[in-house]
């Protein structure tokens, strides 16, 4: 038995060395990656950097946190000030409708993780989305995924978009403050804010996208969200660089699933967790399923974001979107071969 274990370990080591020796050098080693905010969905990027997985892949990665929503990170990518973004998959659909070629190369979240809640003092008045007429809905920023999902929810609830007011309330703590100060009646938010608001009994949840069942109830299917996306032109020019990014992210999500919750929580960078360790443990135990184990997209699941966006955005509905150009599994599949 011991000989078998030694042989297996030796084979794994030789496979790793062979893979490394055959791999080309990355075309670009210094990279800037943007995120729109510090929500749990995006945490693997910062965790991978902290654990040194990007350096393991020969990359020097700088993370730019815009703290203003995914639309700002997307703008930075289109404008050329960053090389890549960890943001929501639905932005690639939005960009294709505008004639921009942006593609996801590694999926981080298999469920959206977004929650929509109404202030608890209005719980008796609001039984469902149909009761939101005349109310202010807090979103991260115009054009962000919370904005797009909020618009979908309003339309799905039988209201016109003019029946409500969308307020840019920010993500995380700013959004929570806007809700608690009664600057908005409804808010779209993610963990760790979601668990904190529930602990305070500050909200009545209208829908919870942190689980597969919640995603199906809210969107009619599984809604893939956070991913690593880049301009197609960058991918074409720098395939090995993109591959190394995917390799590092695969190492990260595997690490999350392979380690005890306590170890993961202690390693999570400060901006992605609260000061209360017990609460962080509760959040992570409930949210581990949020993170993909493989980085792979499902061809059926990507149809859900398209249906959601098309339901309220005529430009996307009329654009004849080719979903095969919004994502690729090429790099995640290769990463699985390279990393035993």
Features:
2 domains, 5-stranded mixed beta sheet, alpha/beta, 340 residues, 10 strands, D-Maltodextrin-Binding Protein, domain 2, 45% helix
Structure in words:
The protein has 340 residues and is α/β, with parallel strands linked by helices. It folds into 2 domains: 2-111 and 224-338, D-Maltodextrin-Binding Protein, domain 2 (3-Layer(aba) Sandwich); 115-208, Periplasmic binding protein-like II (D-Maltodextrin-Binding Protein, domain 2, 3-Layer(aba) Sandwich), CATH 3.40.190. The chain is 45% helix and 15% strand. It is built from 16 helices and 10 strands. The protein has helices at 2-22, 43-51, 53-56, 70-79, 90-97, 145-156, 173-180, 193-199, 212-219, 232-237, 239-258, 261-267, 277-287, 303-310, 314-317, 330-338; strands spanning 30-35, 60-65, 84-88, 102-107, 115-119, 136-139, 165-168, 186-189, 203-208, 226-231. The strands form 2 sheets. Strands 2-1-3-10-4 form a 5-stranded mixed sheet, with helices on both faces. It has a 5-stranded mixed sheet with strand order 7-6-8-5-9, with helices on both faces. Helix 6 (145-156) links the parallel strand 6 (136-139) and strand 7 (165-168). Helix 2 (43-51) packs across helix 11 (239-258). The protein is globular, with a radius of gyration of 20 Å. It starts with a helix and ends with a helix. 46% of the residues are buried. Residues 1-22 have low confidence and may be disordered.
Summarize the structure.
It is built from 16 helices and 10 strands. The protein is an alpha/beta fold.
Q: Report the structural category.
A: alpha/beta
SSE order: HEHHEHEHEEEHEHEHEHEHHHHHHH
- Identify the strand order in the major beta sheet: 2-1-3-10-4
Spans of 5+ residues with little confidence (pLDDT < 50)?
A: 1-22
Overall pLDDT score: 89
Number of separate structural domains: 2
Q: According to CATH, what is the topology of the largest domain?
A: D-Maltodextrin-Binding Protein, domain 2
Tally the helices.
16
Classify the beta-strand content into a percent band.
15-25%
Helix content: 40-55%
Oligomer: single chain
DSSP strand tally? 10
What is the H level of CATH, i.e. the homologous superfamily of the largest domain?
A: Periplasmic binding protein-like II
How far is it from the N-terminal to the C-terminal residue, by CA? 21 Å
Q: Output the radius of gyration.
A: 20 Å
